[in-house]
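Can you give me the bound-state structure? Components:
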Amino acid sequence: MSITVVGSVALDTVYTPFGQAQDALGGSASYFATAASLYDQVNLVGVVGEDFPQEHLEFLGTRSATLDSLQVAQGKTFRWGGRYALDMNSRETLFTELGVFAEFKPSLPEAYGHAEVVFLANIHPALQLDVLQQMERGGVQLRALDTMNLWIETTRDALTEVLRKVDVVMIAEEEARQYANTPNLQAAARTILDLGPKILVIKQGPYGSLLIGADGSYFAAPSFPIEEVRDPTGAGDAFAGGFLGYLATRLHAGHELAPADYQRGLVHGNILGSFACEDFSVGRLKEVTAEDIAARYQQCVSFTHFEAEWSSGTVAATA
Amino acid sequence: MSITVVGSVALDTVYTPFGQAQDALGGSASYFATAASLYDQVNLVGVVGEDFPQEHLEFLGTRSATLDSLQVAQGKTFRWGGRYALDMNSRETLFTELGVFAEFKPSLPEAYGHAEVVFLANIHPALQLDVLQQMERGGVQLRALDTMNLWIETTRDALTEVLRKVDVVMIAEEEARQYANTPNLQAAARTILDLGPKILVIKQGPYGSLLIGADGSYFAAPSFPIEEVRDPTGAGDAFAGGFLGYLATRLHAGHELAPADYQRGLVHGNILGSFACEDFSVGRLKEVTAEDIAARYQQCVSFTHFEAEWSSGTVAATA
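Here's the bound-state model for the whole set.
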């Protein structure tokens, strides 16, 4: 009973106008596991090279049930370098050295099939599909994926195939528009949901996130405001960790997922995403406690809820 | 007892990927008055040329208590032309012909000083200041302004002077950052609020709006989702009309404005802004009824409120 994540484990070099980090722990699976392990047991599936620092291995060992499925392969760990613009929203990729990640073939231990939740982080859609097939041996209840512009542009058919097989699609706003080839976000959402997913989560970066259901439901959660964004790298994966981590606790407790669960999950996602931005790498995220999450959850209630009555008789309605 | 708005009345030519309008009713005061008059009596202060179509005059006459303060001057009406990109967020200005607006000197009838609310739409800060001085003869209770990048760049000192004298600043996100010369929105908000306003409203276009108080309060309202954006021109002024229009009804009814009033006002602003986007010019806005507003208000409640309890005991808190 747990959450299985398949994604990258990387060494990131990040420059922002306010600081930098070199060969820091990065990768979608690292951020996801650091966040989701606050909620439920995580199985991390990934690959690193022989150069991967022991301290990072030890940290990931505290966030994953075992490290058996974190392969250590001959060669170098995936390295990514990026530089953020002054507004911290746009970034330039300085280098991408795939290393051992280029040949990554996820192989899941039998036990991982019993996870309630699987998160297919941003990897090649063919690998995502392969993982889903391996999971079908077990009793997975919630299948979620993330993707990126590269796969939309280069492996669209494979991406479409895996979109048809998941329950939840988590995607950045501009990528939803790109996949659906429309500037209209509502139309883009319908295009994706028409493929089969029950839930579409649109990530809007500093603006928050949207939850759009195949049943026509709609929910919006503004981002948690933070004083200082030090490094937004990994915020989307930490968001996924908070969202799916919270849903896993509900499944774990024997609930069928209801709209209210997905809504609260979205808020948890925003909260974990906000922590991810507050330091380089998983610097802030790894210190987060249940009390920290609870405090931000209550703040989210207070800055989004308003009085449902507004005395409509006061509107003159001249029209 | 009413709302006084001082701003532009224009003839707009707008091209979008989905249609176009030529010499349609535009200008900040037109959009504002069309929206705010749904809530309370509006006094429109502006200027048009002799070429201003009679049908537009007649329409504005239905949205303003009188047209005595809409001067008809010798010359041509302010004309603006713009073309929107496919995403409907960025636009290119094709032409700006100020006409009689270049020599606009607002002169307020004595009676207008008794308005509870004044909205200084996006005009030269020196004119905004002059209007404020004219208003001080009366009993104005709420002074609000909008501005734009042009005034930040060319008349910064005058803008700062008028920022010191208003209660509410309504400003686009990128302009708040520009004025405060920081990419950090929270820091930009403090810079502006430190000048004296009690309330800062940050307009985030398709993402909604934020309400930040000098007392440290914070509230976020996601935008109302619409199926088809036909023309976003004037959405910010319609937003101001909904926001201040609602607040005027509260003042009118003898209430002191409380945080809950500003919050509900922000939701009304988003709603009126959404109507403005649904057609060219004031095409949709002029048909809006109190029932239309009430229906969207309830939808806003349902897509933003979530359960305040989330059974925090389920978080494992491994950290």
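A couple of observations. Chain B is about 35% helix and 25% strand. Chain B touches chain A through 69 residues (CB under 8 Å).
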